[in-house]
Every structure is written in structure tokens, then in C-alpha cells.
Amino acid sequence: MSQSEDDVSKKIATTENIDTDTDNSISLLSITDGENDRGIPNVKFIDDVDVFSNSFTPPASAELLIGAYSELHSKFKTFETSLTQKRQNYDLKIPDIEKSLALVKNLQSKKEGGESVTTRYNLADNVYGKAEVDTSIGIVNLWLGANVMLEYTYDEAADFLTQNLESARKEFISVKDDLGFVRDQIVTSEVSMTRIFNWDVRRKRAEGTVDTPSS
């Protein structure tokens, strides 16, 4: 998980109280139920809104409950955006690593066969030059990012890229799992807010404080 996403996750997981427009607040633990392996809270589904409201002292109002779920929903939406961006980055990063690894393995194969490699390299936009690579030297340079390039032997480069590929694939799986989990929590939050709103309307109608629309 990247630093920015880890910060978002911690912000969701460690928020002690969610303030609303009232003088009261609801603890995050009151509307969550555990967390996944990476510390992302699991939103509590309200089976019986009346029982849940009365579990607080004094009983929590619909406005307070909806405000708490709305705040948590907003945090999850932020996290969803972050995870979506990271998944898109891996969609580009993994094929690049695979391509680089295949190229290094091809150079290894050519070296073992005592062959050179003829290739084309980019000089400018739509302008390429032709070059012959002496594979007997067994050296390749890899871009590491941030304008950093390091020299590796073919074996070192293959090992380095293989480790990076395995790590990227594991991270990609984690990101997809977390994204699916977060989207489930968003849906649960939205359903809970709807149930609370409908419960409040029914309660007020029963008390005669809400006019039923005439047909």
C-alpha cells in the first residue's frame, strides 16, 4: 500500500469520533464491525434501526446516525479514488516489467548462443537508429525512476526484474481485493443511511409529526 493510501486507511481506522451538527458524536466503533487484513474498517449493517438507535444513551437521532454514516461514507469514497488510481498504475507497470524481463531473458539467450542482437533505438519522435548489441559483454542498464539508471549483469537484471514483477503482482492483488472491499463498505453505508431515513419517516408518521401526502 502506498504512503498516501496508508494515510487514508489510518484516517478511516483511527478516527475516534465523528462529529455532527448536534452537540453529540458517535464513536467510529459504534458503526463499524472489525476490519480486513489491512486495517480497513468493516461498516456495520443496521438490521433493526430502532434497536440500534436505542443502544445509545440517550437514543441516537436519525440526523446523528445519518451524519455519522455520511462522514464514514465520504472517507471510503476518498479511499476508493486512491485505490482506483493505484490499480490503474499497476495496469501499466506490470506489462512494462514483463516486457523488460522478456528482453533481458532474450539477451541472456543470445549471449549463451554466441549471437549479437540487432535492434532499433529512439533518437527523436518517430526517428529511430539501428544498432547491434554485443551480448558477450553481458551488461544492461535499467531505469529505476527519478532519472536514475543502474548497470546490471544479465543475471542480476533478470533477478531484479523477477522480484519486482512478483512484488507488483502481489500488490496488484491486494489493491483489487481492497478496492472490492471498500466498494462493499460504500454500498453498506448507503443502504444504512436509506434504512435510517425510512425508519425516521415511519416513526414520525406514527407520532403524527409528518403529514402523509394525500392522493
From TrEMBL:
GO terms for biological process: microtubule-based process; protein folding; tubulin complex assembly. Signal peptide: none annotated. SUPFAM superfamilies: Prefoldin (SSF46579). One of its GO terms (molecular function) is tubulin binding. Pfam families: Prefoldin (PF02996). Gene3D superfamilies: 1.10.287.370. Keywords: Chaperone. One of its GO terms (cellular component) is cytoplasm. InterPro entries: PFD3, Prefoldin, Prefoldin_subunit_alpha. The keyword Chaperone applies. Heterohexamer of two PFD-alpha type and four PFD-beta type subunits. Binds specifically to cytosolic chaperonin (c-CPN) and transfers target proteins to it. Binds to nascent polypeptide chain and promotes folding in an environment in which there are many competing pathways for nonnative proteins. Belongs to the prefoldin subunit alpha family. PANTHER family: PREFOLDIN SUBUNIT 3. This is Prefoldin subunit 3. It comes from Fragilariopsis cylindrus CCMP1102.
